[in-house]
Amino acid sequence: MKRPPPRGAGDLQRQRARHHACGECARAGARLSLIAILLICGVGTTDGPLRAANEPARAASDAMHVAEGTARAPGDAMPGTEDSQWTMPAKNFAATRYSGLAEITAQNARSLRPLWTFSTGVLGGHEGQPLVVKNTMYVVTPWPNVLYAFDLAKEGYPLRWKYRPDVSQNSIGVACCDSVNRGAFYAEGKIIYNLLDGHTVAVDADSGREVWKTKIAEVADGETTTIAPLVVKDRVIVGAAGGEFGIYGWVKALSLKDGQILWTAHNIGPDAGMLVHADTFKPPYDSGADLGARSWANDSWKVGGAPVWGWMAFDPELDLIYYGTGNPAPYNPEQRVGDNKWSSSVLARRPEDGALVWAYQFTPHDNWDYDSTGAMILADLTVAGKPTKALVHFDKNGFAYTLDRATGRLLVAAPFATVNWAKSVDLASGRPVLEPAKQTGASKGNVKGICPSLEGGVSPASPAAYSPRTHLFYTSTNNLCMDYATWSASHLKGTPFVGVDSPYLAGPGGNLGSFIAWDAATGRKVWENKEAYPTWSGALVTAGDVAFYGTLDGWFKSIDAKTGKVLSKFKVGSGVVGNPITYRGADGKQYVAVYAGFGGDWALLSGDTRSDDPADVRAPADYLRDIGRHTSQGGIVWIFGLQ
Amino acid sequence: MTPIYRERGATLTVWVLSCVMLAACEREHAAPSQQHAESTPPAIRYEAHLEAGDLAPAGGALQNPHAGEAAAANRGQQLFTAMNCDGCHGGAGAGWVGPRLSDGRWRYGGADDEIFNSIYYGRPRGMPAFGGALGPEGVWALVSYIKSLPVPQQIATESWEKP
Q: Of all residues in chain A, what percent are helix, strand and coil, respectively (each to 5)?
């Protein structure tokens, strides 16, 4: 993730003054880093890969092609294929956030009205999305991670129960960028989600009683758990955030039945810890042993970050899970010379034993905090005339990538936002063609005007959607650039391992964000709705050819998926950083639900968007001076329907 | 080769110096770590605490040995970066995941000894205890720096109306 301190004009001056004095600080930092390294003991413990019988993947090509309006009985269908429900974060394993429901159309969406709201009582940024299973809506809040279960079959949708776990408040300060939670996953009668303080819980979906709780991460080491789990067969896949604390990034698989940790796979470091086997790991552009260690000078991978806090996908035919990794640590790249594999990358693993099958690095030697934790969307496209099993990803670095998801080979890469750190991406080598003037480092001083900013061309917390009807992808974007001054950072356990001043600047064009439609087969923007502020919500698209998204200044919009024309909009009480969903209610009608709840990044929480703490009053950020005029914190669940 | 590994010798020097400073400080002041063996508890309190029966609890009072000294504030400014304080509280304490330190407002009190306690022992919601890593002398330097940050005159009202 990210995280430059937000600054007002006065603060900027002070910060510059500090930077000039930083030769001294940097040396002090270097002295302290050894202390910190000595304190890190036991990193890299890896559970051995589970050697179980290799269960054949359930053939289910329809997981990629959601049948329109043909709801099948729960239990019969591949999870996520039944349109009346929303049982997993991204709707289906392919992570398309596409629903076959078609009652709401471009013709009638102007009649969408808010029908019900509920205050979650929590102020943190409400990323993620509700689930709807068997006429119950499940809502997970940011810390303290309350789980609400609403009875959608009764008037007013009263609570069936709520589950209130005991979550350490220390985790709030270790979560780099607000105490968010990206949602739950329903599987075999359980609601499974992560608590911020490094635990995964399974709660009985009917009774609300805790079934199991497993400690997966260590807050004292800088790990927090904001990611929504992915449940594949009998495996619960989880990861941890902590790219700003120099963690040794990983994913783990837990038993769905009892929460036991079955395997742990690191994203960086030697092959053994990464569950790389020489005979089965086939990266498309690299070869050799221990790539995750040899691409980091001086064993810097040991505090190299590469966390997992975004979105995961699964292809049942190829039997591969896909996820992106976050930034390498620290932000000064001169402390970690090399490509820093596999930070800022996409990895494909076998769910059964975690074995790495391929990996592709979007941003080698990332020196701009360009995490690749955004959604990996699986779609069957026609690329250059050939039917292709594709993986599509909108990266923080501003390029949209279309890969062959069986091999990881790059097919299309084109900028969807303003990009100047690289000129292009070379399809033959898979590597970016760098712009020398925009490379950063402690010896390079303050590098000015880099695009995108480290908030990304899109926030990884804002997943895109794909419609197999329009063959288009839909995503929010940010139009921000930055200056980047970094210094030698000290790794001191329990504190951030960052070392950057990176004030943001407005990108060209007068708008700070947008919502776009993208043709991933050709790498072409089809249309763009400009937004005044950075746009941070996820996307939803339906078989009614309607797309939905929200804005930071608190509008929730329905638009024509073919043209982008706004069909309806409503001010939902707080900025939207959550992801809309749709489902069929107990009355058989189609509804749309979304969270309002500004936050998810402390750069957003400047100005007076915060009102809860009289001892913390901040100046507005230079680039976003009046967002506080339009929104404040506070979580609200909204349900919309035709009326 | 990164600076991390080059400065091995210097690291040990810092630790030795810290120990010397700690010992010196303990002679001059009642350092909190010394008080565990005594019957009077340490002075973790702040001015906004309510007092039952209007009676303040007994406790040692701490004085900043370098109050108002520019050299101490400068050293504190360096520590503010070196100890990654800015990683949470922002450059110049402008606020980030941790609260702003330059608004003249304090969750746990803004007197020197109250800020000392916040840094030395840590606070809930993720503020680590730095007393172990820095010792009293380093924490006092940070207190001196934080107290030197300029506080804007107008903080309570933000208006978007044209005057």
A: 10, 35, 55
B82, B12, B64: which is closest to A22 by C-alpha?
Answer: B82
Burial class (CB in 10 A: 0-12, 13-18, 19+), A299: middle
* B68-71 contacts, C-beta under 8 A, 24 or more apart: B68/B144, B69/B144, B70/B148
d(CA A41, CA A54): 35
Residues of B in contact with A300 (CB under 8 A): 2, 4
Could you give the CA distance from residue B76 to residue B115 in angstroms, rounded to a whole number?
13
Residue type, A617: V
Decide if B78 and A614 are in contact by the 8 Å CB cutoff. no
User: Which of A127-141, A324-338, A379-393, B90-104 bottoms out in mean pLDDT, i.e. has the lowest?
Assistant: B90-104
Q: What is the pTM of this model?
A: 0.87
C-beta pairs of A428-436 under 8 Å, 24+ apart in sequence: A429/A285, A430/A284, A430/A285, A430/A360, A430/A361, A431/A285, A431/A364, A432/A363, A432/A364, A432/A397, A432/A399
User: Is the Cβ pair A5, B94 closer than 8 Å?
Assistant: yes
Q: A447, A337 in Cβ contact below 8 A?
A: no
How close is the nearest chain B Cα to the Cα of A508, in Å? 25
For residue range A576-589, list pLDDT tens digits in order. 999 999 999 999 99
Distance of CA A130 to the CA centre of its chain: 16
3-state helix/strand/coil string of A348-398: EECCCCCCEEEEEECCCCCCCCCCCCCCCEEEEEEECCEEEEEEEEECCCC
Q: Using the predicted structure, report yes or no on whether residue A25 has a pLDDT greater than 70.
A: no
Asked if ipTM goes beyond 0.90, one says no
Given an 8 Å threshold on Cβ–Cβ distance, is A490 in contact with B88? no
Among B1, B82, B124, the residue with its CB nearest the CB of A490 is B82
